[in-house]
Specification:
Layout (H helix, E strand, L loop, with lengths): L1 H22 L7 H23 L7 H5 L1 H18 L4 H8 L2 H13 L5 H21 L6 H5 L1 H28 L15 H26 L10 H33 L1 H12 L6 H22 L1
Length: 303
């Protein structure tokens, strides 16, 4: 069954990326905040469901203890949602998926962990791919600067990198928080630690959603949750993917990880089919280099 869950996670998260993009309208100033609010409410509902139906011995002290990790994940997603307003999903998603490579490098540099030679090759491939995409982005390969201005074009292109770095930091911190021997979380067991951490993250996202909702209300921004169809579908897919991800990784993580890492391939295909995104051959070449590096790294590090 773990294989079914791995495939399901890949497809569901690919769909989430598609609907995130559809909901991130470039002419809607606060679209990225509206997506954050929608995701926060869906995750809050899921957290409440877990607390009511599962005995995980949850202590609300963990909200504060897990806060550094939660904020990393939430901030990274906010950056992603902002970038989606102006960037093709085919470009942003592969770059964002390099967070795993960045996390691996952080583990090597900070924790002194060893890295396989093939992993080094994969990271080099990813780096070349990203540099290639960046070069094309800044040498007239797109007309983004003409559409939204040079400053906004630079900010937009920086968003996937911000996501990758901040998300990698959250993943790196999770190495500490999800180990029983080092975790500062309370009232946890080997069976509940992941659920406790995820519930803390979802509740924090819900609180952030409430704060953003108040902010938009003060700004006079119209926001009616039932009318946010694409954003709601994206949020549901995001949360559902988290659920299937746990079962996929608990079955055979070494094989499931590279399968799930191919979500950027699914996202690229869906964007090409449904959003009619068209890139140059050179752009696709460098993006496929990034994806190949991610898949190699996921396979090697999962062993």
């Amino acid at each position: 069954m773990w294989f079914v869950f791995a495939i399901a996670t890949t497809i569901i998260w690919g769909l989430a990326e598609l609907f995130y993009k559809k909901g991130a309208l470039p002419n809607e100033k606060y679209a990225h905040l509206k997506i954050c609010v929608t995701v926060g409410f869906v995750m809050g509902a899921h957290a409440l469901f877990v607390l009511l139906t599962q005995d995980i011995g949850y202590s609300f002290v963990n909200l504060l203890r897990y806060l550094p990790v939660s904020l990393c994940y939430i901030l990274s997603m906010a950056c992603s949602f902002f970038g989606m307003r102006f960037l093709e999903e085919s470009i942003s998603d592969p770059i964002e998926n390099t967070s795993g490579a960045i996390c691996a490098l952080m583990a090597v540099v900070i924790l002194g962990e060893k890295i396989a030679p093939l992993s080094v090759v994969a990271i080099v491939i990813i780096t070349i791919g990203i540099l290639g995409v960046g070069f094309l982005e800044n040498t007239g390969a797109t007309d983004r600067k003409k559409k939204i201005g040079k400053k906004m074009a630079i900010i937009a292109f920086a968003m996937p990198f911000c996501y990758a770095i901040i998300d990698a930091l959250g993943s790196f911190l999770d190495i500490y928080f999800l180990e029983m021997e080092t975790s500062p979380l309370v009232n946890i067991t080997e069976d509940t630690i992941e659920n406790v951490a995820n519930t803390s993250y979802e509740l924090t996202f819900f609180i952030c959603a409430l704060i953003l909702l108040v902010f938009m209300k003060i700004k006079g921004v119209k926001f009616e949750l039932p009318k946010q169809k694409d954003k709601i579908i994206a949020a549901v897919c995001e949360t559902a993917g988290q659920f299937t991800y746990v079962f996929a990784m608990s079955g055979n993580g070494a094989v499931a990880a590279p399968i799930i890492s191919s979500v950027c391939v699914v996202s690229m295909l869906l964007s090409r089919i449904f959003l009619k995104e068209k890139l140059t051959k050179k752009q696709y070449l460098f993006l496929f280099m990034v994806i190949a590096g991610i898949l190699i790294l996921a396979t090697i590090e999962g062993d």
